[in-house]
Task: inverse folding
């Protein structure tokens, strides 16, 4: 595979390792993601995919290695220096494998949480509900409605998030990421629990998100059709180590990948 | 008209106005003067319970120390006005700032202790405070208590019992409005997120440390305001008042009234405090069962109505709307719901 030029790269994961007890969940893993591409991370269950996401978003601090995010203006940030809640300020936002929503709140309120860091509301202003605050709320709400419409769930906006089917909850999580004006969106198994039609629709939406929001997308997914369909590049890992990287075609014909998946998912299509 | 009444500010003001009429009704002989005093005390408890509701209801953080902070504020205000002879306003400031500072320190503890352990940690702080109330007699008057007179505003306007009651009602309405502002928007979402999913909150840029301190800060400010009003309304403060039972009462108030509901907090305080004072205690045969009734109420609510009375109100109005057949629970007609356009949804929202 031809190495991309530095200025085209959005995220650079270099020699990252992390162990839990004796178990090496991620072992000296490196990969780079180009700006504005869809990059897939695949591997059997327990391969370390979620763990590497956690290392990128600083929910875990890697034992060694580095994770650099390169802004479109060329500025480079070592994410390992950041506290977990400051990662989103760099334009990096994620979803969770097991949907993380505020179950008791309405869908729209859940989505509004995604705008937390782009809203500048001093406490005193909020206390007295100043005009500026009200306008900010109003505008943010409109933006949220626009995103819900984009994902076809606007009609559900006032329903309680926890009472919605899994597929809708997954969409709410994606909607929430879009509120933060992200440059890099990290999706952990976005199609898990969706049926075939929903998965197809999701594939279409993810591609649209990339174009409309001009974002780079990193995703973990078990649905091989989805991965092969929408990803520009794929990295396959097994037991925390990279076993192959390349275009969907290259990955499909890679014998190592075939071997890792044998007995897990059956065959790769 | 309905639209106006739906505005929360108007609802708070209407409640305030209704409460302001009570002394007149007592004057006319319809209710007793002591009833007004009970309602005034209920409002004072509502304020402290609302602080706990911000902490527990919104942020998911437990505290068993509410009574301790309330008591500390009561003693400080009594000491500053009576012993130091300083103006009421100075007393209020001191009685809010000192406990709140302590409350924020406890907030820092909350990063180390989770759940039940946080409850125990706050309880320990409250018990230490109670030891101080009993033993530091120069400051608290020890077991014989501290005395405080009615508030003197701006150094010349001395309030009597009824005027103090008015002050309490006005403070309550203002606090309701401010807490409504804080919890319905940006900060409320951050606290909700922190409770709902700490991981999601952090991923969305919410600084857990900062918001835990804010939650503890608000809870202690309201407990302090409550303590100040208490000591200048009731006139004295005993160490025995500020015990674990009172903190548990605040907990019970929000369990019964409803998490995250301002009105629910008021109703909870009314049911748990005013009802037993007004209806059970005057009847000798029932006076002793007041704690039992309290206990049963709490169990019923935890088991059957975990969202408190505030939510029962919603359920009743949903049921009523369904019965009317026209509208579903979100106020949208059934035929329309299937294919709402964006404009229609917005229209429904503002209606
Ligand atoms: N916080 C943790 N503590 C201990 N072990 C962990 C932790 N997070 C992940 N692991 C382990 O690391 C390995 C990789 O897990 P994960 O990254 O979730 O796999 P997946 O590729 O299915 O997302 C698993 O063996 C898992 O048990
Ligand atoms: Mg996983």
Result:
């Amino acid at each position: 595979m031809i190495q991309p030029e530095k200025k085209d790269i959005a995220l650079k994961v270099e020699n990252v390792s992390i162990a839990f007890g004796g178990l090496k969940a991620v072992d000296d893993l490196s990969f780079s993601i180009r700006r504005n591409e869809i990059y897939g991370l695949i591997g059997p269950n327990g391969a370390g995919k979620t763990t590497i996401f956690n290392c990128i978003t600083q929910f875990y601090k890697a034992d060694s290695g580095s994770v650099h995010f390169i802004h479109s203006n060329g500025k480079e940030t070592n994410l390992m220096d950041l506290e977990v809640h400051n990662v989103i300020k760099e334009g990096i936002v994620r979803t969770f494998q097991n949907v993380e929503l505020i179950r008791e709140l309405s869908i729209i309120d859940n989505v509004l949480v995604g705008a937390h860091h782009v809203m500048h509301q001093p406490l005193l202003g909020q206390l007295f509900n100043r005009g500026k605050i009200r306008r900010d709320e109003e505008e943010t709400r409109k933006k949220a409605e626009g995103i819900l419409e984009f994902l076809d769930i606007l009609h559900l906006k006032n329903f309680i998030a926890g009472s919605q089917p899994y597929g809708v909850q997954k969409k709410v999580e994606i909607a929430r990421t879009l509120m933060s004006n992200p440059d890099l969106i990290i999706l952990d198994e976005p199609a898990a629990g969706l049926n075939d039609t929903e998965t197809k629709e999701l594939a279409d939406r993810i591609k649209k998100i990339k174009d409309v929001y001009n974002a780079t997308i990193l995703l973990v997914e078990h649905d091989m059709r989805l991965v092969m369909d929408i990803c520009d590049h794929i990295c396959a890992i097994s037991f925390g180590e990279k076993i192959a990287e390349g275009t969907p075609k290259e990955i499909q014909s890679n014998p190592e990948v075939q071997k890792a998946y044998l007995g897990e998912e059956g065959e790769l299509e | 008209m309905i639209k106006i009444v739906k505005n929360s500010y108007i609802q708070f003001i209407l409640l305030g106005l209704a409460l302001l009429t009570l002394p007149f009704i007592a004057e006319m002989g319809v209710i007793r003067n002591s009833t007004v005093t009970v309602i005034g005390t209920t409002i004072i408890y509502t304020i402290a319970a609302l602080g706990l509701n911000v902490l527990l209801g919104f942020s998911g953080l437990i505290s068993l120390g509410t009574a301790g902070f309330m008591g500390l504020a009561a003693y400080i205000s009594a000491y500053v006005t009576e012993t130091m002879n300083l103006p009421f306003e100075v007393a209020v400031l001191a009685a809010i700032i000192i406990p709140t500072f302590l409350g924020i320190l406890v907030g820092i503890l909350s990063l180390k202790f989770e759940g039940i352990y946080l409850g125990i940690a706050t309880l320990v702080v409250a018990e230490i405070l109670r030891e101080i109330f009993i033993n530091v007699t120069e400051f608290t008057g020890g077991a014989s208590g501290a005395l405080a007179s009615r508030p003197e505003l701006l150094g010349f306007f001395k309030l009597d019992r009824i005027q103090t009651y008015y002050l309490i009602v006005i403070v309550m309405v203002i606090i309701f409005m401010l807490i409504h502002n804080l919890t319905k928007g940006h900060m409320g979402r951050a606290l909700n997120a922190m409770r709902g999913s700490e991981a999601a909150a952090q991923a969305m840029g919410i600084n857990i440390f900062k918001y835990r301190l804010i939650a503890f800060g608000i809870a202690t400010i309201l407990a302090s305001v409550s303590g100040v009003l208490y000591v200048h309304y009731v006139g004295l403060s005993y160490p025995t008042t500020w015990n674990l039972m009172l903190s548990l009462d605040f907990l019970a108030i929000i369990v019964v009234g409803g998490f995250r509901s301002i009105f629910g907090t008021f109703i909870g305080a009314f049911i748990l405090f005013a009802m037993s004072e007004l209806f059970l205690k005057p009847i000798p045969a029932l006076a002793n069962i007041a704690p039992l009734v309290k206990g049963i109420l709490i169990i019923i609510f935890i088991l059957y109505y975990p969202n408190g009375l505030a939510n029962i109100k919603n359920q009743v109005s949903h049921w009523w709307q369904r019965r009317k057949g026209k509208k579903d629970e979100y106020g949208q007609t059934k035929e329309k719901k299937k294919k709402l356009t964006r404009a229609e949804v917005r229209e429904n929202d503002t209606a």
